[in-house]
From TrEMBL:
Catalytic activity from the UniProt record: L-histidinol phosphate + 2-oxoglutarate = 3-(imidazol-4-yl)-2-oxopropyl phosphate + L-glutamate
GO biological process: L-histidine biosynthetic process
Protein name, per record: Histidinol-phosphate aminotransferase
Matching NCBIfam families: hisC
Originating organism: Vibrio albus
Amino acid sequence: MEKLARKQVQELTPYLSARRIGGSGDVWLNANESPFNNEYSLTFDRLNRYSECQPEALINAYAAYAGVKPEQTLTSRGADEGIELLIRAFCEPGEDAILYCPPTYGMYAISAETIGVERKTVPLTADWQLDLDGIQANLDNVKLVYVCSPNNPTGNLVKREDIISLLEMTKDRAIVVMDEAYIDFCLEASAVDLLEKYENLAILRTLSKAFALAGLRCGFTLANESLINVLLKVIAPYPVPIPVTDIAVQALSESGLARAKEQVATLNANRAYLKQELSQLNGVTVFDGWGNYLLVKFPDGDALFKAAWDSGIILRNSPIEDCVRISIGNQEECEKTAAFIRGQLA
């Protein structure tokens, strides 16, 4: 079967998600999931029917939350599907390219490689900001530029002025895709207001993080209507199951939004606690983080990661030397993790 697969697929290395990596423990801080497990009500009287392609209630609810028009909103199976839809819709295999700036989320590259689209990289600067000159020098044949803010795994925000410069640079040339999977933890930093001025802007969002619905697989692409209409040409006919819509609409209701806001405040407080605790340790650097995770540099990151793993505290190792990414859990999980690390470095 391997030999029958397309050449690009034969050569592909699957994205190592937290679940694929596995682990065994009672503190899971490796997948940037929410520790909150909220309850929802469901009815099962419509499962014999297909769902709408773009359920009106869900589109209207998320558009209202995001501050955009319904016609600027598309829902999909997580933001991951949004990444792939953009490549399928705008990139010719073997001709066009995407560009992204490592260290960053790995699915941009894998989605492009699967489809046979070239991947160009311009690494972030030493302070993990965009290298605008480097990007400009590599824009030939590029149709999509992926920018993650807050960036995963570094946690930093990309400078707003650099986002605007990138949008100006790529006008009539490429689409800038802002991955805002973690923006709900710092909504004031969203680029959503720039949609009014820039037709070449697309924004990816998700309910997985701040809304504690990682298992629901519900994401959104925000863009101007003409771009959304292109994506509607390539999306599957029934991308969002009926139970997903029902739960997502409840999460986006007035009471659901109030709960999410309260839980975000709790996680941001837990993040501040963990940052303060770890910053006091000798040889440890905790980088500023704006999502529901922190990137932490240790004297020996691999050793710390393995020791935590063996003790049932499952963290995420990082491509950045000696760095470990730690998701923000509940207060007990953060306290247990901080105490464990303190003991390891004593």
